[in-house]
Write a structure and sequence with these properties.
The complex is a heterotrimer of chains A (166), B (410) and C (160). Chain A has 166 residues and is α/β, with parallel strands linked by helices. In chain A, 24% of the residues lie in helices and 26% in strands. In chain A, the strands form 2 sheets. In chain A, strands 1-2-5-4-3 form a 5-stranded mixed β-sheet. Chain A has a two-stranded parallel ribbon with strand order 6-7. In chain A, β6, α3 and β7 form a beta-alpha-beta unit. Chain A is elongated. In chain B, strands 1-2-3 form a 3-stranded antiparallel β-sheet. In chain B, strands 6-7-8 form a 3-stranded antiparallel β-sheet. Chain B has 410 residues and is mainly α. In chain C, 39% of the residues lie in helices and 11% in strands. In chain C, β2, α4 and β3 form a beta-alpha-beta unit. In chain C, α3 packs across α6. Chain C has a 4-stranded parallel β-sheet with strand order 1-2-3-4. Chain C has 160 residues and is of the alpha/beta class. Classes of the chains: A alpha/beta (166), B mainly alpha (410), C alpha/beta (160). Chains in contact: A-B, A-C, B-C. Chains A and B meet through β3, β4 and α3 of A and α3, β6, β7, β8 and α16 of B.
C-alpha cells in the first residue's frame, strides 16, 4: 500500500491521509482521469466501488469533496480518493470510459448534488422525478419537514394539507 | 405539487433508444412500476423485437426515501432506526454496518459476547433473506409451493428475532457498543430446534428445484455475466461468486469476530441464473455452520460496552449514581460527539457489499452518511445481462440478481 | 352499476338485497398487490402459510387494477410514485376500497422529509388505516376484518 501511495504522491501530487487504518488521498480535479487510469492499469484496482460527495456549505473553498472508493480484489486493498471542488455548480471528469460502474454513480451525483460529469453519455436524474427542481442532498436544500399535528394546531394544518377531490 | 405526470419528450430520451425503435421495427414496452415480478417498484422500458429484448432501460427512484438526508438531521443512535428500512430484507445487516461504522469512527470497544450474538443474528438474517429470494424467484417461475414452504421457515426465524428484540422485522437490535439486551433463556432451545430441522428443509427445496427440467430450462445460460464484466460493473455478492471468484468480505476483511469461525465460500463458474441459484443454496448451509459454531462457543460477559460516554447506563444504575443520571441525560437529549473524520465500513449483505461512508464533524449528528448499496450497483448490469433474451427470461434474471428496491433507491 | 337504477328504493326488499350484496363483496374481495416496501414483505407473510389470507377469499393478489376491489397500499409512497398510485386507483372499477397499511402509508411514518408523501390520504380516499412499522400479519388481518365490518354497513346507494 505504501508504494502505491508514494507513487500517487509523486505522479499526481496526491496528499495521503490515514484514519484508523483506512487510507485516503486528496487529489486535485485535473489529475482525476489520469490517476484513475493509473490505479486501474498499473496498481490493479479493478473496481470503482462507491462514488459520492460531501457538501461543506457554507464554506465555498472547497464546497464539495467528491469521494471515490476503489477496491482491488486481487490485492485486497481499499483506497479512498477525495477530490475537492470549488463553487456552487462544479463539474468533474466522467470516469465511465475507465470504469463502467461510474455511469449510475455519476447520475446520482448530478441528481443529489448538482455536480455535472463532463462527457457522461446519459446525464439525467435517477432517483428524483424528472421534473424535480433542486438537488436534495445539498446542505442548503431544506428537509421539508411537515409540522406535526397536535390538538392545538389541528385545524390549521388540516386546512393546508392536500386532500383528493374524490 | 400537482399530480400531473410530466411526459418527457422524445428528444430527451432519443439517445437511449436505437434507430429501429423510432422507425417502428421494434416496440417500446413499459414494464411499469406496479408489476408482480419486478420485486418492488422498478420500472423497465423495454425495446422489444417480437418477444426478444433488444434493450432494457431501468428507471428507478420510485422508492426514494431521502434516508441519507434524514440521517443527517438526527443524532447517531436515533438515526439507526432509519437504517433498518433501507434493505428491508436484511435489517440486522444494515444495523450491523451502521454500528460498526460508528464504532470505528469513535473507537468504541464491543465485548465478545455481543460480537458472537451479532454474528448469530447476521447469519439468521442472511438465511431469512435468501428464503424470501428463493420463494419469490420460484413463484416468478411458477413454482408456487416453494413460496409457501420458504415463508413457513421464515416465520420460525422471525419468531427468534421477536424473542430477542420484541420486533419481527425492523428490530434495531444492534446498538453502538453491542446489542440492546441479552438473549432470553428460551432463545437457545428454540434456535437449536430450528438448526436441527432446517437442513432437511433445504434438501426439500433442492428436491423441488435443482433437478427440475423446467427450472433448469428457464435458468441455465440465462443472464450470463463474465468475471471481467463483473469487475467493470463493480458487482459483488453471490452474483460475483457465481462467476468463479471467491470474494467474500467476511473472509477478506473480517469484522465482528468472523475470523474465528470456520466456513467456506461457495462458488460456481457458469455465471448464469442457475449458478447464482446454486451459490445461494450452498450459502444456506454455510450460514448454518456459522450459527452452530457461534452458539456452541457463545462467550459469557456483558452484552454491551461499558463506556458510558457512548452507551447509556442501565435503568437500575440511575437510582444510585449521579454520573449515570448525567450520562443518561446527555446521551438521550444530545447524543455523543464524533470526531471530524470519515470512515468507510463494508460488510457482506446477502446481496453483495454493503458499505457505509460515515463522516463526523465534531457534533452529535452525522455530517454525511453515504450507503454504498449492492442493489443499486448490481442493477446497472441488468441491460447488459438481458440483451437477446425473452421477456420471460428477464423476469428470471431480475429474480436471480436479487435486488431489493429499498436498497437501490435509499 | 345498473342494479341500483332498476330497483330504486323498495324498502324492506332492498335491505335484504343490501345484505346479500355485501356478503358477496366481503366474501371474495380481491386485493391489488400494491406492495411497495417493507410492509409488502409482511403482506406476503400474511398471504403465505402461517397467517393465511386465502380463508378471507383473498387467494391471489391480482396484478391488474381492473380486476381488483381492494387496494392495500403497503409501504412508503414517494413523490415519484404518487401520480402512478392515483392512476391505479382511477383504473379500479367501482366498488373499491383502500386500506392503508403501515405507518408510512397512513401518515408518512418515520420519514418526515421531501421525498415521501405524508400519508396516502393526500392522494386517495382511505377506508381503513392499519398502524405498525411494519404491522404484524395479525394486525393486517384485523384491518381487513374491520373493513369487512364497514362494508357490511354499506348500502347499494353508496356505490350508485
Amino acid at each position: 500500500m505504501k508504494s502505491i501511495l508514494s507513487a500517487l504522491q509523486k505522479n499526481f501530487d496526491a496528499q495521503p491521509q490515514e484514519y484508523q487504518g483506512l487510507h485516503s488521498v486528496i487529489l486535485e480535479a485535473e489529475h482525476l482521469m489520469a490517476c484513475s487510469i493509473a490505479l486501474k492499469e498499473t496498481h490493479g484496482f479493478e473496481m470503482l466501488n462507491g462514488l459520492s460527495a460531501v457538501d461543506y456549505w457554507p464554506e465555498t473553498e472547497p464546497r464539495f469533496h467528491v469521494v471515490y472508493q476503489f477496491l482491488s480484489i486481487t490485492k485486497n486493498l481499499r483506497l479512498e480518493v477525495r477530490v475537492p471542488l470549488v463553487g456552487n455548480t462544479p463539474s468533474i471528469d466522467s470516469l465511465t470510459e475507465v470504469y463502467a460502474s461510474a455511469n449510475w454513480f455519476e447520475r446520482e451525483l448530478w441528481d443529489m448534488f448538482g455536480i455535472k460529469a463532463r462527457n457522461h453519455p446519459d446525464l439525467r436524474r435517477i432517483l428524483m422525478p424528472a421534473d424535480w427542481e433542486g438537488h436534495p442532498l445539498r446542505k442548503d436544500y431544506p428537509l421539508d419537514y411537515e409540522e406535526v399535528q397536535f390538538s392545538f394546531n389541528f385545524e390549521e394544518i388540516d386546512q393546508r394539507k392536500p386532500r383528493p377531490s374524490e | 405539487m400537482s399530480l400531473q405526470q410530466v411526459e418527457l419528450t422524445t428528444e430527451d430520451l432519443r439517445h437511449l433508444v436505437s434507430q429501429e425503435a423510432l422507425d417502428g421495427d421494434t416496440i417500446m414496452l413499459n414494464m411499469g412500476p406496479q408489476h408482480p415480478s419486478t420485486h418492488g417498484v422498478l420500472r423497465l422500458l423495454l425495446e422489444l423485437d417480437g418477444e426478444t429484448v433488444v434493450n432494457c432501460i431501468p428507471d428507478i427512484g420510485f422508492l426514494h426515501t431521502g434516508i441519507e438526508k434524514t440521517i443527517e438531521s438526527k443524532s447517531y443512535e436515533k438515526s439507526e432506526v432509519m437504517t433498518d428500512r433501507l434493505d428491508y430484507l436484511n435489517t440486522m445487516g444494515n444495523n450491523l454496518a451502521y454500528c460498526l461504522a460508528i464504532e470505528k469512527l469513535v473507537d468504541l470497544d464491543v465485548p465478545e459476547r455481543a460480537q458472537a450474538i451479532r454474528v448469530i443474528f447476521a447469519e439468521l438474517q442472511r438465511i431469512a433473506s435468501h428464503l424470501v429470494w428463493l420463494g419469490t424467484h420460484a413463484i416468478d417461475l411458477a413454482a408456487m409451493s416453494v413460496f409457501l414452504y420458504c415463508f413457513r421457515e421464515r416465520e420460525r426465524i422471525l419468531d427468534l428475532m421477536e424473542m430477542a428484540s420484541g420486533q419481527r422485522m425492523m428490530t434495531t437490535y444492534f446498538r453502538p457498543g453491542g446489542v440492546w439486551r441479552d438473549l432470553p433463556e428460551e432463545f437457545e432451545p428454540t434456535l437449536r430446534g430450528f438448526l436441527a430441522d432446517f437442513p432437511a428443509r433445504i434438501d426439500q427445496y433442492e428436491d423441488l428445484l435443482t433437478k427440475n427440467p423446467i427450472f433448469i430450462d428457464r435458468t441455465k445460460d440465462i443472464g450470463l455475466i463474465s468475471q471481467q464484466q463483473a469487475f467493470d460493473y463493480a458487482i459483488t455478492g453471490p452474483t460475483l461468486r457465481a462467476t468463479g471468484l471467491a470474494h467474500d468480505i467476511r473472509k477478506s476483511q473480517p469484522y465482528s469476530g468472523y475470523e474465528n469461525y470456520d466456513f467456506d465460500i461457495p462458488t460456481r463458474d457458469a455465471g448464469d441464473c442457475y449458478a447464482r441459484y446454486e451459490v445461494r443454496m450452498q450459502e444456506f448451509r454455510e450460514s448454518l455452520k456459522i450459527i452452530t459454531q457461534a452458539m456452541d462457543n457463545l462467550p459469557g460477559g456483558s452484552f454491551r460496552s461499558n463506556n458510558r460516554k457512548f452507551v447509556p447506563p442501565p435503568r437500575a444504575e440511575l437510582g444510585e449514581s449521579m454520573e449515570a443520571v448525567i450520562h443518561h441525560f446527555k446521551l438521550w437529549t444530545e447524543g455523543f460527539p464524533a470526531p471530524k473524520a470519515s470512515v468507510y465500513m463494508p460488510v457482506e449483505s446477502p446481496r453483495g457489499e454493503l458499505g457505509v461512508l460515515l463522516e463526523g464533524d465534531g457534533g452529535p449528528k452525522p455530517y454525511r452518511c453515504y450507503w454504498r448499496t449492492p442493489s443499486f450497483v448490481n442493477l446497472q448490469a441488468l441491460p447488459m445481462m438481458s440483451k437477446g433474451h425473452f421477456v420471460a427470461d428477464l423476469v428470471a434474471i431480475i429474480g436471480s440478481i436479487d435486488i431489493v428496491l429499498g436498497d437501490a433507491d435509499r | 352499476m345498473g342494479l341500483e337504477q332498476k330497483l330504486g328504493d323498495m324498502g324492506i326488499v332492498t335491505t335484504t338485497l343490501d345484505k346479500m350484496v355485501n356478503w358477496g363483496r366481503t366474501g371474495a374481495m380481491w386485493p391489488l398487490g400494491f406492495g411497495l416496501a417493507c410492509c409488502a414483505i409482511e403482506m406476503m407473510s400474511a398471504q403465505a402459510s402461517n397467517y393465511d389470507l386465502s380463508r378471507f377469499g383473498m387467494e391471489l393478489m391480482r396484478p391488474s387494477p381492473r380486476q381488483s376491489d381492494l387496494m392495500i397500499v403497503a409501504g412508503r409512497v414517494s413523490r415519484k410514485m404518487a401520480p402512478i398510485l392515483r392512476r391505479l386507483y382511477d383504473q379500479m372499477p367501482d366498488p373499491k376500497w383502500v386500506l392503508s397499511m403501515g405507518d408510512c402509508a397512513s401518515c408518512g411514518g418515520v420519514f418526515n422529509n421531501y421525498a415521501i408523501v405524508q400519508g396516502v390520504d393526500e392522494i386517495v380516499p382511505v377506508d381503513v388505516y392499519v398502524a405498525g412499522c411494519p404491522p404484524r400479519p395479525e394486525a393486517l388481518i384485523h384491518g381487513i376484518m374491520t373493513l369487512h365490518e364497514k362494508v357490511k354497513g354499506e348500502t347499494l346507494r353508496d356505490w350508485a
